[in-house]
Amino acid sequence: QVQLVESGGGVVQPGRSLRLSCAASGFTFSSYGMHWVRQAPGKGLEWVAVISHDGTNKYYADSVKGRFTISRDNSKNTLYLEVNSLRAEDTAVYYCAKDQVLTAAGTYFDHWGQGTLATVSS
Amino acid sequence: EIVLTQSPATLSLSPGERATLSCRASQSVSSYLAWYQQKPGQAPRLLIYDASNRATGVPARFSGSGSGTDFTLTITSLEPEDFAVYYCQQRGNWLTFGGGTKVEIK
To answer: What residues contact B85, with CB distance under 8 A and at least 6 apart?
Structure first.
């Protein structure tokens, strides 16, 4: 069965960086686009970024463009999110999610990890 | 950016009742709309995609309808496990979510 396991969250000071990881199993990782979606405490869902199945195409929400970088290592079945210049408003649970459609990058999210909490605080 | 507005914000119903949730888009998304269910402390779960298609394993009491700018998620008879927050999401123009509707026990 599909499993997505995020890690790398924690408490970080404003302006610092964090690297989030998502280990995938149970499906052909290299065939699917992958996303990061975040949820601030007590708030709704916000799509953050997507990377195509082969890593050639990457797209970001305006709120994180220029500060966050999505990447993947298909040999390790792992998705990453490098988050830089962190702000208080970046405090959220970060979920990795699998795209529903083979080789697509931007449809729906049919499997989600359990999330990792990143807290930006001095 | 396409804005999705969900209503009502909170729906108070009893088990066995029918739930009707609305999602309105600021411009047409054709049929490119999904619904997700999220329970406290859990990740969202895909229920409906392309406006009316149930995802794998989703009970038949969940149904979706609509196209263009107006969409509806209907739960025909609420089970205890259906009390949760529901989000709509569009893929017609980038990817955005609605603000959510909380279905709570009356």
So the answer is: B37, B38, B39, B100, B101, B102, B103
pLDDT tens, residue by residue, A41-58: 999 999 999 999 999 999
Confidence check: pLDDT of B12 > 90: yes
Q: What pLDDT is attached to residue A27?
A: 97
Q: How many residues does chain A have?
A: 122
Q: Is the pLDDT of residue A104 over 80?
A: no
From the list B24, B43, B31, the residue with the least C-alpha distance to B101 is: B24
In the beta sheet, which residues pair with residue B102?
Answer: B10, B85
Task: Give the integer Cα–Cα distance in Å for B39 and B100.
Answer: 12
Terminal C-alpha separation, chain B: 35
Q: Smallest CA–CA separation between B60 and chain A, in Å?
A: 18
Contact A60, A68 (CB under 8 A): yes
Which DSSP string corresponds to A5-52?
EEE--EEE-TT--EEEEEEEESS-GGGEEEEEEEE-TTS-EEEEEEE-
At residue A103 the predicted structure's pLDDT band, cuts being 50, 70 and 90, is: confident
**Which residues of chain B are within 8 Å of residue A46 when distances are taken between CB atoms?**
97
The answer to whether A113 faces chain B, any CB pair under 8 Å, is: yes
